[in-house]
Amino acid sequence: MQFLLFILTFAAAAAAVPVYLAIRTTCYSGVYVIGARGSEEAAGYGSVASVVSGVLAAIPNSRGIALDYPASVLDPLYDDFVTGGINTLISLVESYASSCSGNIVLVSFSQGANVITDALAGGVLKPTPLSASYASHISAITVYGDLTFTHGQSFDAGTDTGTDGEVPTWGTDAVDFIISKST
């Protein structure tokens, strides 16, 4: 009887041990687009869906993924949601760059833009930014409506680089910019 109890206890313990499976990453010869929606937009690409779609249509063998994070403006949770988005973005970039040699494109709006810029450059009380070795896999970045934007930076490009924290107009110019940097 004690032996049967031992076997049942051992079997129950073995069943409770988690099994970790490696996540398989599919690589693309075009670009891997990560889109981050703005505050309070429904899950998916949000306002930048047309930019993501344009890039995917213009560069063969490309795929996109919408960044999965809350994207809410609830106070005081906004910073927590941005931090969660940063961590998710960094994980996606590191996973893809570790497995694939293709280019990564980042497209974002509003809170998603805040996530992307803080993931790349850091921010007050934010996680450590993406390392340069992983960032080197990123061929193009477009951010719209990042409320933390400061004009005059060396990397500014586009139609509105002179106004802090404003939402510039986007459209085919963004798609053309990404294509020029990624093909």
Question: What can you see in these coordinates?
Answer:
- The chain has a 4-stranded parallel sheet, sandwiched between helices.
- It is α/β, with parallel strands linked by helices.
- It is built from 6 helices and 4 strands.
- It is globular.
- The chain starts with a helix and ends with a helix.
- It has a single domain (2-182), classed as Rossmann fold, CATH 3.40.50.1820.
- 40% of the residues lie in helices and 13% in strands.
- Keywords: Disulfide bond, Hydrolase, Signal.
- This is Carbohydrate esterase family 5 protein.
- InterPro entries: AB_hydrolase_fold (IPR029058), Cutinase/axe (IPR000675).
List keywords for this structure.
183 residues; alpha/beta; Rossmann fold; 4-stranded parallel β-sheet; 6 helices; 4 strands; 13% strand
Tell me, what is the CATH class?
A: Alpha Beta
- The CATH topology assignment is Rossmann fold
* Domain unit count: 1
The biggest sheet amounts to: 4 strands, parallel
Q: Quote the average pLDDT.
A: 79
